[in-house]
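To whoever is on call:

I kicked off a structure prediction for a single chain this morning and the downstream step that reads the tokens threw a length-mismatch warning. I double-checked the sequence; it's 593 residues and nothing unusual in it as far as I can see. Pasting both halves so you can look.
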Amino acid sequence: MNDQLATAFQWHQTGRLIEAEAVYRSVADRAPERADVRFLLGVLLVQTGRAGEAEAFLTRVLALSPGHADAAYNLGVARQAIGNFRGAVAAYRLALRLGASYLDVRLNLGAALQEMGQFAEGEIAYMEALAQKPGDPGILGNLAQLLRATGRQEEALAAFDVALSGAPTRLDLHLGRASVLKELGRLEEALAALDGALRIDPKCAEAHNNRGVLLNDLGRFDLAGDAFREALACKPAYAEAAGNLGNVLLGAGRLDEALKAYDQALDQKPELATARFNRGFARLLCGDYAGGWPDWEARFGLADMQGFHLDGPVWDGLPNLSGPLLVQAEQGFGDTIHFLRYIPLLAAAGIQVIVRCQDSLVPLIRRSFEGQAEVISQSDPAPAYAAWVAVASLGHKLGTRLETIPAAIPYLIPDAEREAAWAKRLSGAQKPKLGLVWRGNPGFKGEARRAPGLTPLKRMILDNPQLRWLSLQRDPARQELLSLGLGGQLDDLGDSDDPLVGQGFDSTAALLKNIDLLICSDTAVAHLAGALGVECWVMLSSAPDWRWGRASDRTPWYPTLKLFRQHAPEDWAGVADRLDIAIRARFPDSPAP
């Protein structure tokens, strides 16, 4: 039997794994007490990707031979491969206690701890590995990734630099270094790092894809598309690259091509939430609500939404509830305002509704839906409920189509006292009053693309002194008034320290009811105006949000809104020119300058 086992071991060493496995199994069946055979079979199973089966064999080895350090280590490898990181950590620590001294024990222990989010202990494991082998590029690379995960990007960059000094041709280190530079906002340096990776391997699909992401962030959209196509040429089944190409095409308004790219991504990787969500966005933008709503639900799988979940069942869209329905705000203020139009429909169906929304919306929403919903702040604990639904899922749950959009405007009611106070504040000159908002949430990733800023609107303002221009812009963009020398042309009504202005939406709603027209970028204020039934002209980028549709100058969601679209990316000057013409037509009785 020993000669047979020796032959099998030699086959194992030389890659004849099928023959080796057959002998190992035969011997293990005939001699179940032999730990050495079960160990060899367990190792072979790990090596051939059958970690689940290997775990059982290696666990038995340790039962037969409790001091078998190599079995403990390989058990850790098997458990790590099947995602049992806690079990892997226990096995690696056992291997260390049993005297295993090879580097991979500590290296894998650090990786498993990192996967569990136990970063401090993982760092210790990596540092102990470095003490065992100072300057090792692989260990330094792992340590750098851990430092990235804990927000210590500068330290991570330093670790990558040291690692690359010892292994300048290691592709993974170049890719990791580029990722850190991107996170630090040093995008051009990140591009250079990826160029270095591509000099090592011109066919590295990941480097091409990551390069495309950087170029897209830098606004070089055509080059980004080329990079994603190159990634797909190197790796045709690269779902992430196909999804990223879809995003570039979507931004360019090439929706049919974008949808094909998303389909390609999802054919290859159906669970890819970003591609499914973006396909939903594109379908909604095209007016395909039947296909768009289900895909758009994939937003809950996105990185910035994964913590969004409440206890209890998610509402199925049916009215037969045993208790209240909790409607939970989820995204920005504009989304909350937009989708709360469904509250009257829910109430009319006999559903007891609890709305849990952003603090600054509570007074306005509570007044507007009095008798139809209980309204609480999302900073407060939710009362008991039978089911819950995210507010932006209401269109999906209720089966909304373009022709059935609920547009009973207005559905928000301002505070009468504040409205009167604003009327008093704005009394005096009889000029038409035009409100202006040129930027939205600075924390929104797409804000730079959707916000014109004040500069392209300056000439329009100066050319129309017959109007009373009112800035509703809040900090920090209010500073543009002074930097452009427009402090004398626009009344600044965005000071949050002003008691009448305040911090919430109640004051803005009351102010909007006192103006003749609002000109606004794609912000929550545009939604507020639409929900109040206030006339508003919305400035849209060439790649607008889905609810504005592809081409029309009107939206069925808000009948009082008119849309002024860019005809080309970055062409805010053209939007301003068309606004200027429209202003003169809208206020013909106001003398031109």
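Update from on-call: the warning came from a stale cache, not from the record. Cleared it. Sanity check on the structure: The domain at 416-586 is CATH 3.40.50.2000 (Rossmann fold).
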